[in-house]
Each structure stands twice: as C-alpha cells, then as structure tokens.
C-alpha cells in the first residue's frame, strides 16, 4: 500500500532470555495518529525504543516508505525520519531552548573557524516555536520552562529533524488538562501536514479524542488492531488485561489480626486525604497508574518524604512526623521500587546488605561480632533461597530476583512487623516472581502486615486481601478480594 | 580471611610489592636512606601523615572529602603554642588545640551532613577559614614554646623509639577496630556504598557525617600538634598543602573517591609508599618541586593499576558467576 510510511515485520526482542516482544507486525500510515495501549510491562516502550534505535531488535525487519531500513542507532533513526519524545525528557536544563533544539548539529558560520551561528539558531528556533504556537524567547534557559513547554521543545527538536514519524511515549502523563488540549491541537496540526504520530498512552479517555487507529499489546504480543470508530473503552480494557490469572499465588486467607497501620487524611507533595489501613495477616494493595502517587504514599508512611497533612497511625499510636529511623524502630520495612538505587548496596556483599539495617537489634554493644553476623546472614540466605556461592558475594553480581530477596532478607532480619513492597516483582523473571509471592504469603501467615504496590493487576488481585485504587493522588475506590476484577480496578484508575 | 571483604587484600598485595620494591631500590640507590637514624625519622613523618590520613580515610569512605585537614593542622599548632605562651598548663593547651580541630570538624559535618552542602565546596571554605583564623591568632609570626612536654611529644623517646611510635600504634589500632568492627564503621561503609539505601535502611546519616568529620578534625589537629612538637613552635603555615599528601595517601591506598570500599590498611601502605618515595627522592637530590611532580605521577600509576586490576577482576567474576 502506498500510504504506509512505516512497516514493522516480525519483530522480536528478549532481555537476558526473557522474551519481551514476540513477532510484532504493524503498519503505520501516513498522517495518522496510531495509538498503542497495553498494561505496564506489555512491551510498548521496548517496541518504541527499537523503532527509534535505542535498542536493537533480535529478529524482524523495518520498512520505511516501502524500503527496508536498518536502524541501529538513534542518529540513524533521526536521519531516516523517525523521532521520539521519551517520557523523561532529554534536555540540558542550563542551556537555552535554541541550543537544545540544535544540540549536536549546530549550524556554523564558516567551515574554517567552526564558529557557531547563534543568530541562525535563534531565528530558526523562533520559527519552530511560532509554528507550535509558543510565544517564548528561544534564548530562555530550559530549566525556567514548565513541563508542557519542555515537551514542546522536544517536539520542536523532532520537527527540526524533519521527522516524518514522531513517537510520543506517554506525553500527557505529567500534563494538566489544559496543556493536554493544547498538545492535541498540535498533534492534529502535525497530522494535517503529513506527519504520522505513534502515541503511547495509559489514559483511555484521551484515546478516543486523538486516535485514528489503535493497537493493543499484551505480554509482548499484539492482541488486536482496531479502528477507533468501532472500539469501546470496555472492549479495549478487556483486550489489555485478557489473560487469565494463573495459579502462582498461593494465598490462604484467615481472619485478620489487629490494625497495625492506618493513615488519617494523610497528605504530602503528590497526594492528599489518603485514608487506608492494614491489619496483621493481611496484604493490602495500592493500584494506580505510574505517577498517581502510590510510591509517594509508601515513602511518606516510611518517613522518607515529609508528612504535610494528617497522620500515620502505627499500632494505634498517632504520628504527625516520621523519619526512616523512626519507621525502622517501629519495625516498618520498605522494599523500594528502585532496587539498584534504593534497595541494596550493589557494591557490597550479601552479608553486609542483610545486616546493616539491624545493627542495633543484632548487637547489644557497639562492637560487631563477625560470627553472629555470618550466622544471621547465612540463615536468611538459606531461608529465602538466595542463590549465590557465599554470603560474601557482591550484590551487583546477583540476578534481579536474588537481589530482591536480599532486600527482603534485610527487613526480615530486622524483624519487621509492617512491610511495604513497591513493585516487588518488576524486572524479575517468572520463576523468581513465584518465589517472592511465596515469601510474601509466608510473611502474612506469620502475622505480619503487608502493603503492596504493583502495576501488575493479575498479581495484585492474586495476592491481596483488599485493594485501594489511587488516581491523581486520591483514593478513588476500595475493593475486597472477592469484588476485585481487573476491569473494575482499571476503570477506577484511569 | 574471606575475599571481597572490606579491605581488598588482593589489591593491597600489589601495593605492598610496590612498597618493598621501592624500599629495596632506595636502599641501594639513595645514600643514607637505609640507616637507623634516617628510617627512624622517616617513621615519624610516616606516623604524622598516617594519623591525619586515618581520619581522611573515614571521610573518603563516606564518599566525601575534607579539604580543611592541612589548615586545621596549622590552626591546632597555633592554638596550642599560643595557649602555652599565655601561661596555660600544657594539658589545657593540648586540649585547646584538639578542640579547635573538633570545632572545624563539627562545622564541616554540619555543612555537609545536615545542610547537605557540596562537601568539596564546604570544606574548601572551612579550609580558608581555619587558615585565616590561624594567621589572625598568631599575627603571621612563629610562636615559639618553652614547654618540655610539647618538645617531648615531638621528639622524645621511650625505650629508644619516638613517643609518636607508641602513641600512633595504639591510636591506629583503635581506628582500625572502629572502622571494621563496630556499628559506626559499618554505617560509614553503608553510606559510602549508597547514601540512599543507607537512609532507607533507617541509618541516621547526618549523625554519621557529623561524627566522622569531628574525628577527622581531631586527628588533623593531633597531626598539627605533633608537627608543632617537632619544632617546639607553632606556625600558621605548618600544614600548608598537607591535605594534598593526605588525600594522595588515601587514594594510593585504594580507597576511591566514590567511597564504600577500601580502608585503613590500604591507607597505611599508601602512607609508607608515599613517605619512602618522598624521603628517597630528597636523598637522591630531587628538589621539593620535583617531588611534587613525581608524587603526582605515583598517584596516576596507582589509580591506573587499580582500574586495570578491577576491570580484569570484574571480567573474571562475570565469567565465574552465571546465576
């Protein structure tokens, strides 16, 4: 067909043996907005990174305007005419708009002296900004701009390359409603001038407004192509989640113990009026889109972020201020989302990582007994099945699943009564996932209380006694285990 | 001992071989190097360096730096001799010198650990403050002392060995014990490994910064007092540029600026290496100017060697561990 600009054929990709994309076929038409939806981890971003040259594909071909192309670098993709705007912007904050737009390909005045032509940069940037309806001086430094304006600078950057295909990864995730409307205007304008947009989004209500065609990804495969006129939101949600829940969650449900964690009108930077509670022997889930405020709630309870309003009640006692030291003393543990930066010290041994949070409890005096340390570390390594030749192995050499177990071991060693798991199975292979679920079930059997954040809905439904849904920093609904379905939860999140 | 432990014995082995080689070379090449009189004096320089460097090691293990070490030495020497000249008892004079170091250390710790200022900039500023205070206090003059005890601290002997040898032996043993076998030492390594993880593990990081900088300040002041004892006088330029030697010692000893690994054992060998190099070079007739350049070269060699050993070990480990 003549009006196909980009064709994707049989693309596959796996990361360290775990398939992320399998046999993807898709074609993008000229001047259309092609929306790709899917749950977190469905493979959308990976696919986009392959098209834009960030990752290399394992198998498959790409055709641009009918001709086969090899895209093996970002530069190559840009030269072909494919631009991408990542969720996190790639802008230098302390340089001007113009300098950012022309970064790496600044026009020069003469070939001899290679003096950069700032006037030309200014003039051309101004044209681009005018085209996008942005009335800003191109000499403004980027860090003075708001998020929406920074995004426009990214768009300008892509346009400056004369991109024919523009990929936008969750462009509205951080925008306000008004800014979103503005962005849509610009997308329509680009479309009318023959640019194709590949648009990734979680927000289903937006899609109806902007999309021409829709592709649904699930577990690295395409489950359907729809034209937007005959797709309903319900249908899209069904296609997104449509997998059956496998029997990997071995939960047993008992009567709950007393309430150990409760928030009262808790508010901080990115959320407000949060009222949730957790009992002993119970796993409570927080569901929501990325950026809805789930992690912030967890970090505030744990004392990493400051409480601005309301309070956190632990074992029935009210706290208006929290700190990580206080939290650990109260036997709260946080298994953070970012294992490598916040969970474990990568450059240190398993042993050190397991004991370093519990020194006060482990050793009465300020001197450390290596014997006790070794015994404790070995005990938890065996109990959690951490696969490593010895407790002296550096954590960075372990697989993701085993690293996560080290973080959990740290809090078990600290004898935590309340555990907060933030995306506990992200980036972990299937086998290790089941093991983590097993450990969590075991913990609640022993009467611990767990607050669990996850973007993986089947996992959340499979593990939790109750689930709260969070949207834009507010609790929108609460579901019991028996009420919860993926459709209901998703509907309360978007 | 197990490998992968806090002190990286394998790298230290290489450094140790380098030290021995240098020692043998200097013994043959530099006349007057290998002899009790010279070596005993080298030992004294070594231990002054080591006392200050052991504090710096803790700071660098945290992933920070203390640029004020040299100035604190000057300040402590001035405060001590000045108090003596006002007629204070030697005990108060010494205490005053140490207190000056502790105060600058506390200021460093507060700026870095509590106010979260950039550690380099903050200690760069206190370096200037300490030096300025020292100059103001002594009016730019050398303050001479007539205290026998201060002279004894700098030059006196017990059982044929300088006083500082006995003193430093005990002090360094304590420091080694603190850094490897106590909760406090563990916390230093944790914070250096990842401040974020340490904080999210409930470690009160600001306290660790405060205490470590105070220790570093006191140890630098001790170094300054020993320097003052050597000449039995205080001088506001006594520690000028000394922080350079101290930081070089720690780096050569295998504690990288990122923190979290390395330790005092490496620093000790680094200090031996540096002092032998310095003394040997001057025995060979190199001017102090040349010594600076050659020591810089030694730092580069040590770091390049460290990087290449690390790379090789990483590759080896990757091959071995396939989990």
Task: Going across the biggest sheet of chain A, name each strand in turn.
Answer: 6-7-8-3-9-10
Judging by the overall fold, what is the CATH architecture of the largest domain in chain A? 3-Layer(aba) Sandwich
Percent of residues in helices of chain A comes to 25-40%
Shape descriptor of chain B: globular
| End-to-end gap of chain B | 24 Å
Number of helices of chain B: 13
Which structural class best describes the helix and strand composition of chain B? mainly alpha
Query: Which superfamily, in CATH terms, is the homologous superfamily of the largest domain in chain A?
Result: P-loop containing nucleotide triphosphate hydrolases
What is the third-level CATH name, the topology of the largest domain in chain A?
Rossmann fold
Largest β sheet strand count, sense and barrel closure of chain B: 2 strands, antiparallel
Which runs of chain A of at least 5 residues are low in confidence (pLDDT < 50)?
Answer: none
Properties at a glance:
heterodimer, A: 494 residues, alpha/beta, Rossmann fold, 2 domains, six-stranded mixed beta sheet, 18 helices, 34% helix, globular, B: 323 residues, mainly alpha, two-stranded antiparallel sheet, 13 helices, 4 strands, 2% strand, disordered N terminus
């Amino acid at each position: 067909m003549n009006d196909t600009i980009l064709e994707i054929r049989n693309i596959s990709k796996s990361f360290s043996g775990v398939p992320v994309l399998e046999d993807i076929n898709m074609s993008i038409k000229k001047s259309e907005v092609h929306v790709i939806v899917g749950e977190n981890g469905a493979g959308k971003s990976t696919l986009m990174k392959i098209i834009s040259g960030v990752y290399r594909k394992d198998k498959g071909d790409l055709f641009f305007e009918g001709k086969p192309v090899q895209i093996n670098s970002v530069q190559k993709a840009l030269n072909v005419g494919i631009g991408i705007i990542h969720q996190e912007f790639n802008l230098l904050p302390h340089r001007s708009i113009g300098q950012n737009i022309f970064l790496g390909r600044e026009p020069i005045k003469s070939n001899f002296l290679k003096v950069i032509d700032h006037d030309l940069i200014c003039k051309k940037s101004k044209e681009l900004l005018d085209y996008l309806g942005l009335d800003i001086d191109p000499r403004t430094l980027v860090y003075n701009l708001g998020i929406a304006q920074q995004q426009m600078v990214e768009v300008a950057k892509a346009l400056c390359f004369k991109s024919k295909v523009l990929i936008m990864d969750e462009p509205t995730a951080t925008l306000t409603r008004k800014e979103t409307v503005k962005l849509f205007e610009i997308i329509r304008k680009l479309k009318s001038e023959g640019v194709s947009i590949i648009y990734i989004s979680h927000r289903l209500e937006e899609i109806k407004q902007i999309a021409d065609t829709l592709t649904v990804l699930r577990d690295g495969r395409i489950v359907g192509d729809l034209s937007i006129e005959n797709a309903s939101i319900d249908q899209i949600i069904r296609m997104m989640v449509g997998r059956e829940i496998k029997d990997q969650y071995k939960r047993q449900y008992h009567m709950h113990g007393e309430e150990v964690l409760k928030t009262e009108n808790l508010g901080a930077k990115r959320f407000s009026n949060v009222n949730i509670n957790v009992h002993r022997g119970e796993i409570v889930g927080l569901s929501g889109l990325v950026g809805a405020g789930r992690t912030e709630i967890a970090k505030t309870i744990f004392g990493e972020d400051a409480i601005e309003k309301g309070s956190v009640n632990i074992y029935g006692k009210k706290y208006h201020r929290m700190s990580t030291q206080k939290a650990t003393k109260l036997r709260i543990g946080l298994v953070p989302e970012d294992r490598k930066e916040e969970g474990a010290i990568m450059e240190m041994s398993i042993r050190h990582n397991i004991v370093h949070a519990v020194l006060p409890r482990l050793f009465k005096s300020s001197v450390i007994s290596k014997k006790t340390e070794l015994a404790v570390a070995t005990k938890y390594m065996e109990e959690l099945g951490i696969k490593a030749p010895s407790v002296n192995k550096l954590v960075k050499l372990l697989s993701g699943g085993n690293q996560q177990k080290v973080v959990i071991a740290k809090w078990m060693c600290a004898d935590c009564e309340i555990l907060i798991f933030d995306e506990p199975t992200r980036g972990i292979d299937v086998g290790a996932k089941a093991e983590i679920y097993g450990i969590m079930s075991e913990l609640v059997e022993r009467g611990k209380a767990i607050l669990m954040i996850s973007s993986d809905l089947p996992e959340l439904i499979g593990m939790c006694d109750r689930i709260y849904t969070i949207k834009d920093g507010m609790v929108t609904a609460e579901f019991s285990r028996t009420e919860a379905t993926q459709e209901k939860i998703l509907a309360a999140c978007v | 001992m197990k490998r992968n432990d806090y002190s990286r014995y394998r790298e230290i082995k290489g450094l140790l071989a380098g030290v021995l080689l240098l020692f043998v070379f200097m013994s043959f090449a530099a006349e007057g190097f290998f002899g009790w009189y010279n070596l005993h004096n080298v030992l004294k320089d070594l231990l002054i360096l080591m006392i200050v460097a052991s504090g710096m090691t803790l700071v660098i293990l945290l992933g920070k730096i203390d640029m004020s070490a040299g100035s604190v030495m000057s300040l402590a020497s001035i405060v001590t001799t000045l108090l003596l000249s006002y007629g204070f008892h030697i005990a108060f004079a010494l205490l005053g010198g140490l207190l000056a170091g502790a105060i600058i250390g506390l200021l460093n710790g507060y700026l870095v650990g509590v106010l979260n200022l950039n550690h380099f900039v903050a200690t760069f500023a206190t370096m200037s403050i300490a030096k300025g205070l020292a100059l103001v206090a002594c009016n730019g003059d050398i303050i001479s002392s007539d205290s026998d005890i201060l002279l004894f601290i700098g030059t006196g002997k017990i059982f044929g060995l300088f006083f500082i040898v006995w003193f430093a032996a005990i002090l360094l043993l304590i420091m080694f014990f603190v850094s490897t076998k106590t909760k406090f030492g563990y916390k230093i390594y944790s914070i250096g490994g990842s401040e974020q993880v340490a904080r999210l593990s409930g470690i009160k990081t600001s306290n660790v910064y405060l205490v470590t900088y105070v220790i570093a300040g006191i140890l630098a002041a001790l170094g300054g007092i020993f320097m003052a004892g050597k000449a039995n006088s205080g001088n506001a330029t006594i520690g000028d540029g000394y922080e350079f030697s101290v930081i070089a010692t720690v780096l050569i000893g295998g504690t990288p600026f990122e923190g979290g690994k390395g330790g005092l054992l490496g620093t000790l060998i680094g200090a031996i290496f540096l002092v032998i190099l310095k003394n040997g070079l001057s025995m060979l007739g190199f001017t102090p100017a040349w010594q600076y350049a050659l020591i810089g070269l030694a730092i580069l060699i040590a770091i390049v060697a460290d990087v290449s050993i690390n790379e090789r070990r990483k590759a080896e480990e990757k091959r071995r561990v396939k989990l």
